[in-house]
Amino acid sequence: MKSLFTFLLILGMANAPQWQLNMEQAKTEAKTNHKFILLNFSGSDWCGPCIKLKKEVFESEAFLSYADKNLVLVRADFPRSKKNQLSPQQTTHNESLAERYNPEGQFPLTVLIDASGKELKHWVGYPATLNVQTLVNEIDAQHAAAH
């Protein structure tokens, strides 16, 4: 029974949207599939609110289900621990994203972007009022305004 549950859990996660690391690929996918891009700036190994936001919102079944249909997910991570360091190419890519979308270096920062790369909305930190439903409602409002 336990192995069946594990198998079903893995199977369910296999269909979950994956966080991408490349903005240009995300733009192409967003244009092709008529989706917005959700870019998350994170300090995965040092930023408490980043870790909490990821666990409580971005890894929730409700968010993943919504994202699968409506979003291309991109993560720009800035880990500090030596064991979690990114490749030099990824670090450079994330820094260029930060120059454009996060010049003040806020963590976490989540940015809603259209397929052309234009910022539509952003959320700074992980405020108590931000949950899956409020995030989805705000993204849907942007989608309705764009169409």
UniProtKB/TrEMBL annotation:
What keywords are annotated for this sequence in UniProt? Signal
Tell me if DNA-binding is a UniProt keyword of this record.
Answer: no
- Please state the span of the N-terminal signal peptide per the UniProt entry: none
Q: Which PROSITE patterns match?
A: THIOREDOXIN_2
The Thioredoxin domain sits at 10-144
| Keyword Ribonucleoprotein on entry | no
Record's Pfam families? Thioredoxin_7 (PF13899)
Please report the name of this protein according to its UniProt entry: Thioredoxin family protein
